[in-house]
Amino acid sequence: MSESLEAIIEAARRNRDFAPIIEAIPYARFLGITVDVKGDEITTCMRYRPELIGNPQLPALHGGTLGALLEHASIFQLLWAENVVLLPKIINLTVAYLRSARPQDTYARAFITKHGRRVANVHAIAWQDYRDRPMAQAQAHFLLRSPAA
Amino acid sequence: MRLHFWPMVREPQSGSGARMLHDDGQSLDAYLVWIGEIPHLRATGFELIEITKEHAIGRIPYRIEHVGNPMTGVVHGGIVTTLLDTVGGAAVIGRLGKSLTMVTLDLRIDYLRPSTPQHDLFARVECYKLTRNIAFTRGMAYNHDPEDPLASMSATYMLRTPTQRRGDAGEVGR
Predict the structure, then answer these.
(1) Which pTM does this prediction carry?
(2) How far apart are CA B162 and CA B63, in angstroms?
(3) B71–A5: do the CB atoms touch at under 8 Å?
(4) Which terminus of chain A has a lower count of CB atoms within 10 Å, N or C?
(5) Does the ipTM exceed 0.85?
(6) Any CB–CB contact under 8 A between A45 and chain B?
(7) What angle do CA B13, B21, A52 make, to 5 degrees?
C-alpha cells in the first residue's frame, strides 16, 4: 500500500523520525543518508561507501555527493519547520568546496536564514571530524509549496 | 515502505557509442581512463560523450535510485550537481588538452525546470577562461534538447592541486 508523501512527512515530524522519508526518497537511500534529530537540531549524515569516491588518488568523496548532502540537509531542515508538508523545490544552490572530503562519514546541518511564504533561503555546512572545519558550505533558495497550491 | 508512483522506467541505454573528439586525442587517454574508473561515476552510470577544446558533454542515465521526488519520478538536484561538476572538470581538461589535477572551488546551479522523468540527464559545459591557477566554466543540463535546459551552472576550478594528502592532518594544500 502506498501512502502519500505528505502523510509520511507529517508522521515523520510527529514521531521525530525521518527514516520513513529517507526510505521514500530513492536518491537519499542511494547516497546512504540518515538523519539524527536532537531537540531542534537536525543532523544529516552521509554514511561512507566506496561508491561515493570521486578522486581515487587522494582519495576524496565526489563533490557532487557533498552538494547533494547539503541539499538533503536543507530539505530536511525545511520539512522540520512548520507549514512545510510538501517537498520543497530547489531554485538554486551555490556550493563552496573548502577542503576535500575524506573517505569517511560526512555530516551536514542547515540553517534557515529567511523563511518566507513562498521562498526560503538556507545556509548549510558539511563536516567530518570537526564542525568548525567544514568540507563544504552551501547557500540555497527553495520554493515552498502549500498543499492547496 | 517504498513509493513507486511513476510509471516503470525503461532500462538505461548501454554506455557504448561514446564520441571522443579532440585535436590532440592521445594526450587525453590517461584522463579518459582515470574518469572511467571513478567509483561514484561508475555508480551513477556517468558517461563522457564528447570532450573538445570548446566544450565537454556528459550523460547520467535515468535510474530509479536517482529519483528525489517519489510522487513525480523527478530526479534529485544532487544528481544534477554531480553531472555538472564532473562535466565542468572535463571541459577544463578539454580546453587544456592534457590531464591535470584540479579541485572544484565553487559551483552554482540554477534549477530552471524539473528534469523530465524517465529521460537521461545530459550536460554541456564550456571552459571560457583559463588562468595559471583557476579555470572558469559555464554550462547547462538538459534532457534531450540543449535549447530546453533544465539547469544552468557556473563553476570555478583550482588547477594543479596535490595528488596526495599532506600528512595525517586531513588537510589538502591549496
Answers:
(1) 0.89
(2) 34
(3) yes
(4) N
(5) yes
(6) no
(7) 50
